[in-house]
Structure formats: C-alpha cells, structure tokens
C-alpha cells in the first residue's frame, strides 16, 4: 500500500464562483458588507493503488464569517454519484437530453468499479457527532451552534473507492492515466448569501469554499 500525505496548509485555493477582487478571507465583512466562509483542511490519506481504494483522516477548521448562527453544516461526497441507482445515474438514463458521455455507463458498473465515499468517527471540538449520508450530501447537526465570527474544528475518518472514469474524475481513462483524482474527499459545502449550496451531484459544476489545504 502506498501512502500519500496531503498536508497542504500553505496554498490558498480558489474553489468558489465569483471574482477574486470581492473576496476577503478570514474576515466577517468588508466595507461593502461582503462576507465569505473560510475552511482550513489537513488530511492524511492512504491509497491502495491496486484496489483503487483509500482511507483518510481529515481535520477541518471552519470559520463562520456570515451574520447567521449555524446549527448544522453539509459536506459533498461526490464519488457516491458513480454507482447504479444514484441520482446522477437515474437522471442520465431518463432525461430527454442526456449527457452522451454518461448515458447508462454508471448503471453498468460492477461493485469493484463504482465510486463511493463514506464518513465515520466524526467530532466537533472533541464531541461525537452523528452525520447522516444522503446520496452525495452529508448532513451534520452540530453539537454546538456556530455563532457569527466563531470557528470550530471538525474531525472525521473517511474511506472511498475511485470509480472507473465515467466523467471527469476516475481511474484508467482512455489517455492511460491510472488515477484522475478530483473532488475525492469530504468537501464542506458553500454557505453564502443565498444559504447552503447542497444540490446533489448530477454531473454539473462545483461550488465550494475558499480555503487552505
């Protein structure tokens, strides 16, 4: 088993829509009243390159720069879309104008070819949480509500399987790349002026939080 350490604490990643001139990280508001949430990830990951499976530990410091108190948070579990019966699979096979790159390919995946991402042993500042997995979204009721300007530390274990490449991320693509790893970890959903962005993944664009990885 090959070990991959992901401890990218110095790189600031733009994972959100909107222009960079509007962004003020780690600050509740700017002169125009603009605010944006902040995340700081640390992850330690083991990848089994023969089975295309991985396990990891994640520590996330989440800062609430919004004017609202949050009693829950949400994570994206994108790899869960790549399995028979998922919302992405059903939609791809039944809508009037399906993505021809997907079609019925997800429905035909075998158990050792699907994608998945699951979370366990989750805590908030040391207190055990009971998250609920709903397809490609993880719903997390906080043990202690997060007031404006406060930060909290969320820790969790996760395990996943890289799917045969259907679209974007996956393994063994036609160009001969063994692992195309994108959106593979439990990823905090964006909370902005419109509320939580928790749409299930069906093959469209991503919207995420500014942060450090």
Q: How would you concisely characterize the structure shown here?
A:
GO terms for molecular function: aminopeptidase activity. The protein has 213 residues and is mainly beta.
Structural account:
With 213 residues, the protein is mainly β. It has one domain (2-212): Immunoglobulin-like (Sandwich), CATH 2.60.40. The chain has one helix at residues 87-94; strands spanning 2-6, 12-13, 38-48, 53-63, 70-76, 116-124, 127-128, 132-134, 137-146, 151-161, 170-171, 179-180, 187-188, 190-192, 195-197, 211-212. Strands 1, 2, 3, 4, 6, 7, 10 and 16 form an 8-stranded mixed sheet that branches. The chain has a 4-stranded antiparallel sheet with strand order 8-9-5-13, with no helix packed on it. The longest helix has 8 residues, at 87-94. The two termini are 23 Å apart.
- Report helical residue fraction: under 10%
- Name the shape in a single word: globular
Mean pLDDT: 80
Q: What's the CATH class, please?
A: Mainly Beta
- Reported CATH architecture: Sandwich
Question: What's the SSE pattern?
Answer: EEEEEHEEEEEEEEEEE
How many domains? 1
The main sheet comes to: 8 strands, mixed
Radius of gyration: 18 Å
How large is the share of residues in beta strands? 35-45%
Class from helix and strand fractions: mainly beta
Taking the alpha carbons of the first and last residues, their distance comes to: 23 Å
How many runs of DSSP E, i.e. beta strands?
16
The assembly state of the depicted protein chains is single chain
Unreliable sequence segments = 1-28
CATH topology: Immunoglobulin-like
Number of helices: 1
Protein name: Zn-dependent aminopeptidase
GO molecular function: aminopeptidase activity
Organism: Nonlabens ulvanivorans
Keywords: Aminopeptidase, Hydrolase, Protease, Signal
């Amino acid at each position: 088993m090959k070990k991959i350490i992901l401890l990218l604490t110095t790189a600031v990643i733009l994972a959100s829509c909107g222009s960079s001139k509007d962004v003020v990280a780690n600050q509740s508001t700017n002169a125009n009243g603009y605010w944006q949430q902040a995340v700081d990830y640390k992850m330690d990951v083991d990848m089994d390159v023969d089975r295309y499976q991985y396990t990891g530990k994640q520590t996330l410091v989440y800062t609430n720069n919004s004017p609202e108190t949050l009693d829950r948070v949400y994570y994206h579990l994108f790899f869960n879309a790549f399995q028979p019966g998922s919302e992405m699979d059903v939609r791809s096979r039944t809508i009037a104008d399906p993505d021809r790159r997907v079609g019925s390919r997800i429905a035909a995946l075998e158990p050792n070819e699907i994608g998945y991402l699951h979370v366990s042993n989750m805590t908030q500042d040391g207190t055990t949480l009971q998250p609920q997995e709903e397809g490609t979204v993880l719903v997390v009721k906080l043990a202690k509500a997060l007031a404006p300007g406060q930060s909290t530390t969320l820790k969790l274990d996760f395990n996943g399987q890289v799917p045969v490449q259907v679209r974007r991320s996956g393994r063994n693509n036609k160009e001969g790349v063994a692992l195309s790893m994108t959106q593979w970890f439990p990823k905090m959903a964006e909370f902005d002026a419109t509320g939580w962005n928790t749409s299930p993944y069906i093959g469209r664009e991503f919207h995420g939080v500014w942060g450090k990885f």
